[in-house]
Amino acid sequence: MTPAILWLTGWGMPDSCWQEVRQQIPCALHLAPDYSRVSRPEQFCEVVEQTARSIDGNELIVVGWSMGGLLALRLAASRPVAGLVLIGTTMRFVRHPAERNKGWGAVVLQRMKRLLPTERERVMAQFAEQMLSAKEREQNRLEMEKAGEQWSEQALLAGLDYLASEDCRHVAASLSCPAIVISGTDDLICPLAAGEELANTLPDADFVPLKDCGHMPHVFYPDVVGTAVTRMVKQIARKYSQASFQ
């Protein structure tokens, strides 16, 4: 069995951010959705579904980061998924003040949406800066100039609307596939408490916290993330082999 892995990146981020992790799994069929024509929030799910349907006869593993993690949860609720690896993911991005340790207030996204058409570079640079822990700022490996360049303005705005409206809290508890949830202890975008909440809600999930890590475990700790994805691939392969002999 050749495993198929669907890679779902975060808001405004380039698909190339997965490069160091993907190269650790050369035997897999790697796929990623194209968001270039997205102009409405619901289209993100449609594009992801369309990409998943292109896989024929392969067990599908979905790796989702941040907004991509929300899309991964939504996909797993609509079609069979063999396994999930969720990085810096929350079930609900926008939170009320009482749950501010698990997400952002709606006003932050509203401000980003208001400024984006006229101050795009500033918005993207500030967002990228927030993804870093204090330790990571000293060894920044994110190519800031690539943040958002593959996304049209319409896609970026639609992504903010998607983050503002999506709520997968009722979805996660219904998923039966195995999952690995990876969160940075210093993540300011999707806080550690949100990752813990997600791992505790999913019926079959392992939680991997990373000390001193911000919102980009796959960029600063690619070996840890690569090991998690490889472990999921092997787990699904064993299950597939056992089923073949039954």
TrEMBL record:
Stored Pfam families: Abhydrolase_6
Gene Ontology molecular function: hydrolase activity
Regions that span the bilayer: none
Gene3D superfamilies assigned: alpha/beta hydrolase (3.40.50.1820)
UniProt xrefs under InterPro entries: AB_hydrolase_1, AB_hydrolase_fold
PANTHER family: ALPHA_BETA-HYDROLASES SUPERFAMILY PROTEIN, HYDROLASE
Protein name: Alpha/beta hydrolase
Source organism phylogeny: Bacteria, Bacillati, Bacillota, Bacilli, Bacillales
